[in-house]
Model the fold of this input.
Amino acid sequence: MGASSKIPRGEKRRKLIFRSLHDCIIKKGYAKTTLAEIAESAEMSPSHLLYYFKGKDAILEDYFQNVALQILERLNSFRDFPPEEQIERLADLFFAGAGITKSEIGFMLECFGVAVNDKVLRKEKAELDVQCKNNLTELFSNTPKRFIASATDCAEVSYAMLIGLRSAVYFDDKFELPDGHRLFKYTISRMAGL
Done:
């Protein structure tokens, strides 16, 4: 393995800090997580952590941006498939447990809550929402018929349903990932006229 294939030390540290923030949020929630706890989990001092990020909000903003990019990459990888397969892959990504687990849903809900009052995170979330809806609009534009005439309206309803079902999986003990998968796939397929 050559030197160019190695991950730079600073990048390794940033990933470790992201993982530490993630784990702390899963355990305690964002509001109750301190910078000192993130640093301790990353096995560094708070002052060393501040070398990489300005503070706790900056870590979350960068981390959310990375997660959003990963989601968008996955969504974009589905674009060349027929609509039926795109719907199956979307349902699998968000509700099969392999891509986004129940704890990951909790993490994203924490991020959404922080985005209400954090301008940077709100902008990043809004951009993620637009890209996801654009992807869904393209999907519905390629279906033989639609329950709702406008592909854009179908995308809006589908995205709202996606967020709602993901929240239900997290908060309703009687509603599990397979339930979300089934309802999402069924409803999107019917909306697409498939």
Remarks:
- The chain has two domains: 7-53, 64-191.
- The CA atoms of residues 112 and 125 lie 7 Å apart.
- The chain has a mean pLDDT of 87.
- The radius of gyration is 19 Å.
